Amino acid sequence: LSESGVPQLVQPMIWDYSADISVEGKVQLIEKYRRCGFSKVWFASAFKGATGVTQSLTLIGHHLRNQLEWLQVASRSPADVLEGIALTGWQRYDHFSVLCELLPVAIPSLAVCLQALKNGGYSEKIKENVEQLLGMPNLEIDTFMR
Predict the structure, then answer these.
(1) Whether pLDDT at 146 is above 80
(2) InterPro entries annotated for this entry (predicted)?
(3) Any idea which architecture 4-132 has in CATH?
(4) What is the residue extent of each domain of the chain?
């Protein structure tokens, strides 16, 4: 890869939507990319649509934990390596699948995930801020919203 010139033309994106990503494994992968000559990498997380092909509702806690794991990877990586995070919101697994987790039911998850990424973590204060922004008196993180 180093000799091909590809690292000067592209920036790799590391995708993982799970709530318990291998932080150490991702840090090692970033180091491998750097040794090949890639100066920047992107992360790809999800705020919806990555937990099951027939999932109707969005479990905010799963996606929040995904963001928090990526923040750990970022904090353990060289300061100048992260170019950005693509916060994805999948609506179908392939073109032949039914739609899942439509955007309206996932807006609370999007708000929580954006605030966690913006603030470098999640706290009761951030939860209260999201509740106020969305006009929701009781944001449920670890159960499905009603």
Answers:
(1) no
(2) GH (IPR017853), HEXDC-like (IPR038901)
(3) Alpha-Beta Barrel (3.20)
(4) 4-132
